[in-house]
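Human:
Focus on the backbone:
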Amino acid sequence: MIARLGKLFIILSVVLLVGATAWWFLFYEPMLGENVKKASECFYYTTDLCTVGNMAGGFMGDVPTYSPLAFWGAVGALVLGLALIVLAPKSS
């Protein structure tokens, strides 16, 4: 049962990571176009440049301002899932 819960958290982490990536891309691509990779640091950390971009981007489009908490939520779900799998009692 615990191992199945761990697998569920791992699946959730993949879904969250895909969602975070899509959100990041949809938010920064209209501002940066082909140079969207310049905002790669904003995917996992909010720098001063990311804050300026977030303020400007908030006025430019319909996509809510990106937050790296989505990425870190995915990482947390992955770590929790792996921990549950490792700590699950082994069936004989």
Q: What stands out?
A: The radius of gyration is 17 Å. Residues 5 and 63 are 32 Å apart (CA to CA).
